[in-house]
Amino acid sequence: MARIESNIPLAARVAEQLRERIGSGEFTVGTKLPTELELARELGVSRNSVREGVRALVHAGMLRAYIEMMHTGEPVHTWPVG
């Protein structure tokens, strides 16, 4: 996937990219998404931008996140919801 470039805030662009990938069927209900670090590298943005974009989609009800508190407290299982 190409790096994201635009005047739109990075987190919003990340959220839009993920929406498109969910809509295209690349990420289906119950499928674990790549990690924040993997998405950040792929999209050429910071992990924080990915985290904010994912958080926006969780808030919108498009993604569900399971938090693993034992290690980092970061979402380790994130998947689209139907």
From TrEMBL:
The keyword Transcription applies. CDD domains: WHTH_GntR. It comes from the Bacteria. Residues 8-79 form the HTH gntR-type domain. Pfam families: GntR (PF00392). This is FadR/GntR family transcriptional regulator. Transmembrane segments: none annotated. Keywords: DNA-binding, Transcription, Transcription regulation. PANTHER family: MANNOSYL-D-GLYCERATE TRANSPORT/METABOLISM SYSTEM REPRESSOR MNGR-RELATED, MANNOSYL-D-GLYCERATE TRANSPORT_METABOLISM SYSTEM REPRESSOR MNGR-RELATED. InterPro entries: Bact_HTH_transcr_reg (IPR050679), Tscrpt_reg_HTH_GntR (IPR000524), WH-like_DNA-bd_sf (IPR036388), WH_DNA-bd_sf (IPR036390).
